[in-house]
Give the backbone structure.
Amino acid sequence: MSTEEENFYQIAKDIVKVFGKIFATRPYIAIIDAMGNIRYIDDLLSKQHLEFIQDFVKVNFKYMKVGEYSVPLGSINLAFFKISSKALITIFTEKGFTGQLLAFKTRMYEWSEKIDNVLGNISIPSTIVAKESQPVESIKPSIVKKKTGIRKIPYLTKNLTGKEKFSIEASSIIQFCDGKHSVDEICDETKYPKLKVNQVLIELQKKGMIKFKKFIA
């Protein structure tokens, strides 16, 4: 195993150690550079999704901004996170639900500098800002429901730095505190019961991380 391979293996091992505890199931990791080259991939992930991962990165890397993610296969727990202008990390789990993978977004920058340093100088495609919506941040469309009464919509009071530490529930829920998703829609997206979502949102509100805007629906 070369020094580069050892470095990527250790990074993947660290991610598995951290998020294996958070997910309560074994995550499988792939590290892919900007040109779609696989720099590291766990065996099970390679056997099941190698070709799809390579094709996805080659087509979509240039459309994703640093910090964005994509979950292109709604029924499969496979997520892509653009951690820097040089690389993207893929996480796959066989168990659990897709929303829990978003916990990685809150801590992904812990490994971005290490990966960039190992990659060194590589060709980087320019990010394309398309007029049409691109396939990023798309777990599944929000469910639009006709409701009456007051809709509470949480939004962040400040941008996340990536260094915050949240519980798995908070990590999944806070991704939808974007001023667009109502509490009911967050329940739909995360699959958490409304009581749990409200508990987490109240805790985040007490910490000054979110506020609510209300609409009469």
User: Anything to note?
Assistant: Confidence is low (pLDDT under 50) at residues 129-148. Helices lie at 3-23, 43-60, 109-119, 168-174, 183-190, 194-206. The chain has six helices and seven strands. The CA atoms of residues 32 and 133 lie 23 Å apart.
